């Protein structure tokens, strides 16, 4: 599948794990990254088309008991540390992910030689907490939405790598959206920030918060807030006009006056998604789920209709799992399903690649800034068109697993997130 371009600094054979050592990780990155687009330290990507971060879950007890080894090393602090040193070389502000091929033969010193380095705006290892990811990466985007911008957060990666955990937190059962605890997902934290901001500023600004929940399955758009399965089965169509941009015709929208109300909407949608996937012999991990929050803001001091009015939109996107067909053994309907997912993810990758090239071109006065952005290649990219281009902000959270048996899938995710090349 085509993947999205982030950096010209790509993977190369690594010198072995560990952040130290002359000619080590930073030396390699310096050689590989010449002429690349450099991030701006902590909070990098705030002015770029898309900010890409990587998160790796811990090894599970089952993986360890089955004899799988850890193949991922991450240095999340390196970028944060050197970014505070004004004299540090520009290329050294990257955060690093190191992946080792478990099938490679040991070389000198017993180290496996086939290893790759990737660099990203931020990386979060198995010791990171939900609060770390939210405070350092997500919260600035939420604040931009409250300023009237559009923002999108994608959770991307293989099924079982923690996409849903990142979005929803530690959910005891399908459909739950816990409102408390350190393990809350970024969705709940976003809602909390939105309504806290509203409480602080409601004396001078009027707010209306609306929530919708939809999924895209095999390029068909469905309303997750449908009252029954029969209504859910009917695909919705996309429309477009000057006032609303691209929208889903007939999509339900619920006004939410507090965090409990918006979490209730998400909980209903999650329950419907799980129920529908069971009844229709599908898997919820095989569809893209998009929770949309629209915030209308009107200054109380505004003179006349529309004066001082702003609208911000937040999209929380749980992407379908990026499995490799040769490993899943998909056949028949499942093979068709996988093909649609790959085409959709490929279209998203092409859009992000084009946006990144356009962003670079506009800042370097290159012709790249005027290139065509292929939004209409999939329902997902068409629907999110007004939340990806222009002054919008987006974060791609690429989730990977640390175990050796998922080497190919983790490598594909890292390549797609960091290179814009072709996945396996």
From TrEMBL:
InterPro entries in alphabetical order: Kinesin-like_fam, Kinesin_motor_CS, Kinesin_motor_dom, Kinesin_motor_dom_sf, P-loop_NTPase
Primary subcellular site in the record, as a coarse category: cytoplasm
A single MF term (Gene Ontology): ATP binding
Keywords from the UniProt entry: ATP-binding, Coiled coil, Cytoplasm, Cytoskeleton, Microtubule, Motor protein, Nucleotide-binding
Binding residues annotated for ATP, in chain numbering: 157-164
Record carries keyword Cell membrane: no
Domain called Kinesin motor: residue spans: 49-423
Disordered, as annotated region: 1-23
GO cellular component: a single term: microtubule
Cell location: Cytoplasm, Cytoskeleton
Gene Ontology BP, a term: microtubule-based movement
Gene3D superfamilies named among the record's database cross-references: Kinesin motor domain
Tagged with keyword Zinc: no
Similarity field: Belongs to the TRAFAC class myosin-kinesin ATPase superfamily. Kinesin family.
Listed PANTHER family: CHROMOSOME-ASSOCIATED KINESIN KIF4A-RELATED (PTHR47969), KINESIN-LIKE PROTEIN (PTHR47969:SF21)
Protein name: Kinesin-like protein
Species of provenance: Frankliniella fusca
